[in-house]
């Protein structure tokens, strides 16, 4: 037999009618609130149960109500019926309503049970779409009458004391009971008269107290017993020992009469006093004394009190640091007393001293205080008591200074003054500090200047020998003209130029920058801006038929490095290619450089150039240096570095042994012989190629080695290998 599904059944029972609105059927599964709904709805198909009245309307269109009891609504559009042998549904055809239904509107359904007029109502929102609305699954049911008959409940409350003793207490209705007691409410409805506050009225035993004299009973305290609708709860008045008590005494000592503010009002007072608390945290914190009298200060203020400062007034032997002021008989409390003391101390305020630092540019000027030579020269620090005053000036030859004087009045902080030497305009002047045996005079035209200090600029040429340096700040906008006369051979105005005389010489410094700085170096040794001095450059053929490019610098500074160029068969630099770059060392001593060009062939002439590249990317070329390659074919070198076994081995000391070592190209190293104690006996150097080392059993001093075991170790850039050999009699 073909199986009929729920969807098929819904289609089969749909009757074709003409509707005012768009047809759409709403099916709602229902269950009875009491018993099996199938006992009340026995009809099937397009009929409705005689036990129920079903009404339906759309909330948004009031007055358009459909009912199975109005005599006009077709049963095919509204009914309650069995959909299957196990499912009962209400059926509503939305197209029956006079007004077109809309998505999102609310359907309100009411089902009334005719025998007792009980009814239930529910709302359903019309979902999106036009297909049937099916609420027939598990969890989608609505409950219809008849509803369940009210059950009865019994509540049992068991109230005891924690020591199982007999004590009086009152219930929420002020009725007196004694523990233990079981109070009952019911059987009856859900109302539970046992809920509320219960108060114990009996005194606790000696040494104990009630943890709480009241207990609250709430509905959640009751749990179901073995019998349905019987709920039990248990509550207890709890006895606890009377706790120990603690007393903390903080004694505040110091000069009497001064107010001290503690962390709490109760801890504040006037020295001397004692602050007392039962909880140590009430005394912990900062204690601040009022302002000290003139000329004095508190040694420590505020004083911070911490819990670990409290100790027992008396220490019990073998016990804790606490004073017992009671006994523990019959549970009686014990009182522990802890003491702490803080003391505020006054001390005289020490005299405050401050520093006055006097400096000058240049240094070494005599310092006058109040017009009197102090005997000190700049830089120097004077130490003055607070409130002191003084007038400071400096003197050096006939120069003038800015500022002219430094006035200190009522000193209350560290101070300093830097006197700067002034170069006047249009007056020849000899700067201070010129080394003995040399003369310098300078005249400034076009403005005045200040003598300043700075870090001398390093010369590019390491041969430069600076004898004297002078820093100036040229005041105004310039340009400025300097007339310099000196016995030094060179004058270098950094950033302007290098001058070699004859002196005196007029030198113009371009203007445009207000208060422009100037650095003037005087010295010898050549042009300080020369970066490198090349004394040798050549390309030569090596024994291996390679080309060695070598060059020597006497001095070099501010150099980036050296580029090597090569052209095969032509002296034309434009066609050369770069084959190497060598970084510069930038030292003032002689440096030797080399580069081996192995990419050459016999029968060819090669031309080489050396480019010296400075830090500022400026460069100079040297060359070409030609080389004709026409030498013997270089030997074939081993592909790998290896060390073979010594032969013969063992061997006699008088006979000796041979160790063959093959070293690959570019590899070098040593073969070292050690005795059994790890001491070095002999060392042989090895280079690329085949090395046949003969050891005659003598150490590096020529002494004959004794019989025994020896080790020989090869150490190169690419291989470390150790083997053993034996000398026999």
Task: Summarize the structure in words.
The chain is mainly beta and 729 residues long. It folds into 7 domains: 6-144, no CATH class; 153-241; 245-348, no CATH class; 353-423, Sandwich (Immunoglobulin-like), CATH 2.60.40; 440-524; 532-629, Immunoglobulins (Immunoglobulin-like), CATH 2.60.40.10; 642-728, Sandwich (Immunoglobulin-like). Helix content is 1%, strand content 48%. It has 1 helix and 60 strands. Strand 46 (532-541) and strand 47 (547-556) form a beta hairpin. The radius of gyration is 57 Å and the shape is extended. It starts with 5 loop residues before the first helix and ends with a strand. Residues 1-16 and 315-331 have low confidence and may be disordered.
Quick description:
With 729 residues, the chain is mainly β. 1% of the residues lie in helices and 48% in strands. It is extended and about 135 Å long.
- The poorly predicted ranges are 1-16, 315-331
How widely separated are the two ends?
A: 114 Å
Report helical residue fraction.
under 10%
Largest sheet: 9 strands, mixed
Strand content: over 45%
Count of DSSP helices? Answer: 1
Mean pLDDT: 87
Strand tally: 60
Domain unit count: 7
Anisotropy-based shape = extended
User: Structural class from helices and strands?
Assistant: mainly beta
How many whole angstroms does the radius of gyration measure?
57 Å
